[in-house]
Design brief:
MetI-like fold; 73% helix; 331 residues; two-stranded antiparallel sheet; 13 helices
Protein backbone atom coordinates (compact mmCIF):
# COMPACT_ATOMS: atom_id res chain seq x y z
CA UNK A 1 0.00 0.00 0.00
CA UNK A 2 2.79 2.37 0.93
CA UNK A 3 4.52 1.87 -2.41
CA UNK A 4 1.28 2.43 -4.25
CA UNK A 5 0.45 5.56 -2.29
CA UNK A 6 3.95 6.90 -2.90
CA UNK A 7 3.61 6.31 -6.64
CA UNK A 8 0.40 8.28 -7.07
CA UNK A 9 1.93 11.75 -6.64
CA UNK A 10 4.82 10.75 -8.92
CA UNK A 11 2.42 9.61 -11.64
CA UNK A 12 0.42 12.78 -11.29
CA UNK A 13 3.59 14.86 -11.58
CA UNK A 14 4.61 12.88 -14.65
CA UNK A 15 1.25 13.48 -16.33
CA UNK A 16 1.40 17.16 -15.44
CA UNK A 17 4.93 17.45 -16.84
CA UNK A 18 3.84 15.77 -20.07
CA UNK A 19 0.90 18.15 -20.42
CA UNK A 20 3.20 21.12 -19.87
CA UNK A 21 5.66 19.85 -22.51
CA UNK A 22 2.82 19.30 -24.97
CA UNK A 23 1.48 22.79 -24.28
CA UNK A 24 4.92 24.29 -24.91
CA UNK A 25 5.26 22.31 -28.16
CA UNK A 26 1.78 23.38 -29.23
CA UNK A 27 2.56 27.06 -28.57
CA UNK A 28 5.85 26.72 -30.43
CA UNK A 29 4.11 25.09 -33.41
CA UNK A 30 1.55 27.91 -33.49
CA UNK A 31 4.31 30.52 -33.40
CA UNK A 32 6.20 28.77 -36.20
CA UNK A 33 3.03 28.51 -38.28
CA UNK A 34 2.27 32.19 -37.72
CA UNK A 35 5.82 33.13 -38.71
CA UNK A 36 5.60 30.92 -41.78
CA UNK A 37 2.43 32.64 -42.95
CA UNK A 38 3.95 36.06 -42.34
CA UNK A 39 7.02 35.18 -44.42
CA UNK A 40 5.21 33.36 -47.21
CA UNK A 41 2.04 35.42 -47.17
CA UNK A 42 3.13 38.26 -49.49
CA UNK A 43 4.48 35.84 -52.11
CA UNK A 44 1.31 33.72 -51.81
CA UNK A 45 -0.92 36.77 -52.34
CA UNK A 46 1.08 37.87 -55.39
CA UNK A 47 1.02 34.40 -56.93
CA UNK A 48 -2.72 34.12 -56.27
CA UNK A 49 -3.34 37.52 -57.87
CA UNK A 50 -1.32 36.57 -60.95
CA UNK A 51 -2.77 33.08 -61.45
CA UNK A 52 -6.33 33.32 -60.13
CA UNK A 53 -7.71 35.38 -63.01
CA UNK A 54 -6.32 33.18 -65.86
CA UNK A 55 -7.57 30.03 -64.12
CA UNK A 56 -11.02 31.51 -63.52
CA UNK A 57 -11.16 32.78 -67.11
CA UNK A 58 -10.22 29.34 -68.47
CA UNK A 59 -12.92 27.67 -66.36
CA UNK A 60 -15.43 30.28 -67.53
CA UNK A 61 -14.53 29.93 -71.23
CA UNK A 62 -14.69 26.14 -71.03
CA UNK A 63 -18.43 26.41 -70.39
CA UNK A 64 -19.05 28.11 -73.74
CA UNK A 65 -19.00 27.19 -77.40
CA UNK A 66 -16.58 29.94 -78.34
CA UNK A 67 -14.63 30.16 -81.58
CA UNK A 68 -12.34 33.18 -81.93
CA UNK A 69 -13.23 33.66 -85.62
CA UNK A 70 -16.93 33.96 -84.70
CA UNK A 71 -17.11 35.82 -81.35
CA UNK A 72 -20.75 36.81 -81.91
CA UNK A 73 -21.82 33.17 -82.02
CA UNK A 74 -20.64 32.49 -78.49
CA UNK A 75 -23.16 30.39 -76.55
CA UNK A 76 -23.37 28.81 -73.12
CA UNK A 77 -23.24 24.99 -73.31
CA UNK A 78 -22.30 24.18 -69.68
CA UNK A 79 -20.38 20.85 -69.59
CA UNK A 80 -20.71 19.87 -73.26
CA UNK A 81 -17.05 20.61 -73.95
CA UNK A 82 -16.01 18.21 -71.19
CA UNK A 83 -18.45 15.55 -72.41
CA UNK A 84 -16.98 15.92 -75.89
CA UNK A 85 -13.44 15.58 -74.54
CA UNK A 86 -14.11 12.51 -72.42
CA UNK A 87 -15.89 10.79 -75.30
CA UNK A 88 -13.09 11.47 -77.79
CA UNK A 89 -10.24 8.96 -78.18
CA UNK A 90 -7.87 11.79 -79.20
CA UNK A 91 -8.10 13.21 -75.69
CA UNK A 92 -7.57 9.84 -74.01
CA UNK A 93 -4.64 9.06 -76.30
CA UNK A 94 -3.01 12.38 -75.36
CA UNK A 95 -3.71 11.70 -71.69
CA UNK A 96 -2.17 8.22 -71.79
CA UNK A 97 0.91 9.46 -73.67
CA UNK A 98 1.34 12.29 -71.14
CA UNK A 99 0.96 9.87 -68.23
CA UNK A 100 3.40 7.40 -69.79
CA UNK A 101 6.05 10.08 -70.32
CA UNK A 102 5.58 11.34 -66.77
CA UNK A 103 5.86 7.93 -65.08
CA UNK A 104 8.85 6.70 -67.11
CA UNK A 105 10.89 9.90 -67.00
CA UNK A 106 10.30 10.60 -63.29
CA UNK A 107 11.16 7.01 -62.32
CA UNK A 108 14.41 6.97 -64.32
CA UNK A 109 15.36 10.48 -63.22
CA UNK A 110 14.81 9.56 -59.58
CA UNK A 111 17.21 6.60 -59.81
CA UNK A 112 19.85 8.48 -61.84
CA UNK A 113 19.45 11.62 -59.74
CA UNK A 114 19.96 9.68 -56.52
CA UNK A 115 23.11 8.08 -57.95
CA UNK A 116 24.47 11.49 -58.99
CA UNK A 117 23.56 12.95 -55.60
CA UNK A 118 25.50 10.17 -53.86
CA UNK A 119 28.52 10.82 -56.11
CA UNK A 120 28.42 14.57 -55.44
CA UNK A 121 27.88 14.01 -51.71
CA UNK A 122 30.87 11.69 -51.35
CA UNK A 123 33.20 13.48 -53.76
CA UNK A 124 36.43 14.97 -52.45
CA UNK A 125 36.17 18.61 -51.42
CA UNK A 126 38.67 19.74 -54.06
CA UNK A 127 36.56 18.39 -56.94
CA UNK A 128 33.12 18.75 -55.38
CA UNK A 129 32.48 22.23 -56.80
CA UNK A 130 33.57 21.53 -60.41
CA UNK A 131 31.73 18.19 -60.34
CA UNK A 132 28.45 19.76 -59.28
CA UNK A 133 28.85 22.49 -61.90
CA UNK A 134 29.48 19.95 -64.66
CA UNK A 135 26.50 17.84 -63.66
CA UNK A 136 24.16 20.86 -63.58
CA UNK A 137 25.12 22.11 -67.07
CA UNK A 138 22.26 20.28 -68.91
CA UNK A 139 19.67 21.78 -66.57
CA UNK A 140 20.97 25.28 -67.34
CA UNK A 141 20.27 24.87 -71.06
CA UNK A 142 16.97 26.32 -72.28
CA UNK A 143 14.44 23.56 -73.01
CA UNK A 144 13.84 24.74 -76.59
CA UNK A 145 17.56 24.74 -77.35
CA UNK A 146 17.98 21.27 -75.85
CA UNK A 147 15.00 19.97 -77.84
CA UNK A 148 16.42 21.31 -81.11
CA UNK A 149 19.80 19.76 -80.30
CA UNK A 150 18.28 16.34 -79.68
CA UNK A 151 16.11 16.65 -82.79
CA UNK A 152 19.09 17.35 -85.04
CA UNK A 153 21.05 14.53 -83.40
CA UNK A 154 18.40 11.96 -84.33
CA UNK A 155 17.12 13.49 -87.57
CA UNK A 156 17.41 11.05 -90.47
CA UNK A 157 19.00 13.70 -92.73
CA UNK A 158 21.17 15.85 -90.47
CA UNK A 159 21.66 13.56 -87.45
CA UNK A 160 24.79 11.62 -86.59
CA UNK A 161 23.24 9.00 -84.29
CA UNK A 162 22.37 6.62 -87.13
CA UNK A 163 25.91 6.82 -88.53
CA UNK A 164 27.76 6.49 -85.23
CA UNK A 165 25.60 3.68 -83.83
CA UNK A 166 24.83 1.73 -87.01
CA UNK A 167 26.59 -1.24 -85.42
CA UNK A 168 23.84 -1.47 -82.78
CA UNK A 169 21.08 -3.96 -83.73
CA UNK A 170 17.98 -2.13 -84.91
CA UNK A 171 19.79 1.10 -85.85
CA UNK A 172 20.63 1.82 -89.48
CA UNK A 173 21.14 4.82 -91.75
CA UNK A 174 17.51 4.53 -92.90
CA UNK A 175 16.02 4.59 -89.39
CA UNK A 176 13.63 7.53 -88.97
CA UNK A 177 13.36 7.99 -85.23
CA UNK A 178 10.37 10.32 -85.47
CA UNK A 179 8.30 8.18 -87.85
CA UNK A 180 6.75 5.83 -85.27
CA UNK A 181 5.49 6.18 -81.73
CA UNK A 182 8.04 3.98 -79.93
CA UNK A 183 11.23 5.56 -81.24
CA UNK A 184 9.82 9.10 -81.15
CA UNK A 185 8.80 8.77 -77.51
CA UNK A 186 12.20 7.24 -76.73
CA UNK A 187 14.00 10.32 -78.08
CA UNK A 188 11.60 12.72 -76.35
CA UNK A 189 11.97 10.97 -72.98
CA UNK A 190 15.76 10.68 -73.37
CA UNK A 191 15.96 14.43 -73.93
CA UNK A 192 13.81 15.10 -70.87
CA UNK A 193 15.84 12.71 -68.70
CA UNK A 194 19.15 14.19 -69.86
CA UNK A 195 18.04 17.74 -69.11
CA UNK A 196 16.17 17.39 -65.82
CA UNK A 197 18.04 14.63 -63.99
CA UNK A 198 20.46 17.26 -62.58
CA UNK A 199 17.46 19.04 -61.03
CA UNK A 200 16.45 15.85 -59.23
CA UNK A 201 20.08 15.27 -58.18
CA UNK A 202 20.30 18.78 -56.71
CA UNK A 203 17.17 18.31 -54.59
CA UNK A 204 18.26 14.86 -53.41
CA UNK A 205 21.72 16.20 -52.59
CA UNK A 206 20.09 18.66 -50.20
CA UNK A 207 18.23 15.74 -48.64
CA UNK A 208 21.42 13.70 -48.25
CA UNK A 209 23.01 16.59 -46.39
CA UNK A 210 20.22 16.35 -43.78
CA UNK A 211 20.90 12.69 -42.91
CA UNK A 212 22.59 12.71 -39.46
CA UNK A 213 26.11 11.26 -39.51
CA UNK A 214 25.47 9.85 -36.03
CA UNK A 215 22.72 7.57 -37.36
CA UNK A 216 24.94 6.31 -40.16
CA UNK A 217 27.80 5.65 -37.79
CA UNK A 218 25.56 3.89 -35.27
CA UNK A 219 24.11 1.68 -38.00
CA UNK A 220 27.60 0.74 -39.21
CA UNK A 221 28.64 -0.13 -35.67
CA UNK A 222 25.56 -2.36 -35.41
CA UNK A 223 26.73 -4.20 -38.52
CA UNK A 224 24.29 -2.80 -41.08
CA UNK A 225 25.09 -3.53 -44.71
CA UNK A 226 25.14 -0.83 -47.41
CA UNK A 227 21.70 -1.88 -48.59
CA UNK A 228 20.35 -1.70 -45.03
CA UNK A 229 21.92 1.73 -44.57
CA UNK A 230 20.24 2.92 -47.73
CA UNK A 231 16.83 1.40 -47.02
CA UNK A 232 16.59 1.91 -43.24
CA UNK A 233 18.59 5.07 -42.59
CA UNK A 234 19.27 7.21 -45.64
CA UNK A 235 15.96 7.03 -47.54
CA UNK A 236 13.64 7.41 -44.48
CA UNK A 237 15.54 10.48 -43.33
CA UNK A 238 15.41 12.18 -46.73
CA UNK A 239 11.78 11.34 -47.52
CA UNK A 240 10.85 15.04 -47.57
CA UNK A 241 13.50 15.75 -50.22
CA UNK A 242 12.36 12.76 -52.27
CA UNK A 243 8.75 13.91 -52.12
CA UNK A 244 9.65 17.45 -53.22
CA UNK A 245 11.80 16.11 -56.08
CA UNK A 246 9.13 13.68 -57.30
CA UNK A 247 6.32 16.21 -56.94
CA UNK A 248 8.08 19.09 -58.68
CA UNK A 249 9.38 16.93 -61.51
CA UNK A 250 6.10 15.05 -62.01
CA UNK A 251 4.17 18.30 -62.29
CA UNK A 252 6.68 19.61 -64.81
CA UNK A 253 6.71 16.35 -66.81
CA UNK A 254 2.92 16.19 -66.95
CA UNK A 255 2.88 19.64 -68.56
CA UNK A 256 5.48 18.70 -71.20
CA UNK A 257 5.15 20.78 -74.35
CA UNK A 258 8.40 22.16 -75.80
CA UNK A 259 10.14 18.89 -76.65
CA UNK A 260 7.07 17.32 -78.26
CA UNK A 261 6.23 20.50 -80.17
CA UNK A 262 9.72 20.80 -81.64
CA UNK A 263 10.51 17.15 -82.34
CA UNK A 264 7.22 15.75 -83.62
CA UNK A 265 4.48 18.38 -83.27
CA UNK A 266 2.35 15.58 -81.89
CA UNK A 267 2.66 13.36 -84.95
CA UNK A 268 3.30 9.60 -84.81
CA UNK A 269 1.08 9.21 -81.75
CA UNK A 270 3.09 11.56 -79.51
CA UNK A 271 0.47 14.23 -78.82
CA UNK A 272 0.28 15.29 -75.17
CA UNK A 273 -2.36 17.23 -73.25
CA UNK A 274 -0.54 20.57 -73.36
CA UNK A 275 -0.07 20.27 -77.11
CA UNK A 276 -3.73 19.28 -77.54
CA UNK A 277 -4.77 22.43 -75.67
CA UNK A 278 -2.45 24.45 -77.91
CA UNK A 279 -3.89 22.91 -81.08
CA UNK A 280 -7.47 23.63 -80.03
CA UNK A 281 -6.87 27.16 -78.76
CA UNK A 282 -4.19 28.50 -81.13
CA UNK A 283 -4.35 26.41 -84.29
CA UNK A 284 -8.11 25.81 -84.51
CA UNK A 285 -9.10 28.90 -82.46
CA UNK A 286 -11.59 26.79 -80.46
CA UNK A 287 -11.24 28.77 -77.24
CA UNK A 288 -13.97 26.91 -75.37
CA UNK A 289 -12.68 23.43 -76.15
CA UNK A 290 -9.05 24.43 -75.64
CA UNK A 291 -9.93 25.94 -72.25
CA UNK A 292 -11.63 22.68 -71.28
CA UNK A 293 -8.43 20.76 -72.06
CA UNK A 294 -6.44 23.26 -69.98
CA UNK A 295 -8.83 22.94 -67.05
CA UNK A 296 -8.59 19.14 -67.16
CA UNK A 297 -4.80 19.41 -67.27
CA UNK A 298 -4.87 21.73 -64.25
CA UNK A 299 -7.19 19.36 -62.37
CA UNK A 300 -4.82 16.45 -63.08
CA UNK A 301 -1.92 18.47 -61.68
CA UNK A 302 -3.87 19.23 -58.49
CA UNK A 303 -4.78 15.56 -58.16
CA UNK A 304 -1.13 14.57 -58.52
CA UNK A 305 -0.18 17.01 -55.76
CA UNK A 306 -2.84 15.55 -53.44
CA UNK A 307 -1.79 11.95 -54.15
CA UNK A 308 1.91 12.71 -53.62
CA UNK A 309 1.34 14.44 -50.28
CA UNK A 310 -0.93 11.66 -49.05
CA UNK A 311 1.37 8.89 -50.29
CA UNK A 312 4.58 10.20 -48.75
CA UNK A 313 2.93 11.43 -45.51
CA UNK A 314 5.63 14.02 -44.91
CA UNK A 315 5.40 17.16 -42.82
CA UNK A 316 7.35 19.58 -45.03
CA UNK A 317 7.62 22.11 -42.22
CA UNK A 318 9.75 19.73 -40.18
CA UNK A 319 10.85 17.31 -42.86
CA UNK A 320 9.65 14.33 -40.86
CA UNK A 321 7.54 11.31 -41.72
CA UNK A 322 4.06 11.75 -40.26
CA UNK A 323 3.20 8.12 -40.87
CA UNK A 324 5.33 6.75 -38.10
CA UNK A 325 8.93 6.38 -36.97
CA UNK A 326 11.67 7.16 -39.43
CA UNK A 327 13.48 3.96 -38.78
CA UNK A 328 16.70 5.75 -38.09
CA UNK A 329 18.96 3.09 -36.64
CA UNK A 330 17.18 -0.09 -37.66
CA UNK A 331 19.08 -2.77 -39.46
Amino acid sequence: MTATADNVPAEQRSRRDRREVQAVKSDRAKDEARLGWLLAGPAFVIMLAVTAYPIAQAVFDSLFSYRLTAPDERSFIFLDNYILLFSDWVFWSAFLVTLFITVVTVAIELVLGFALAMVMHRALKRIRGPLRTAILVPYAIITVVAAFAWYFMFDINSGFINKWFSWVPGISAELDWFANTGTALTVIMAAEIWKTTPFIALLLLAGLAQVPDELLEAARVDGATRWQLLRRVIIPNMKAAIMVAVLFRALDAFRIFDSVFIMTYGDAGTEVLALLAYRQSISRLEIGLGSAVSVVLFACVLLMCFIAVKMFKVDLASGTDTGGAQGGGEK
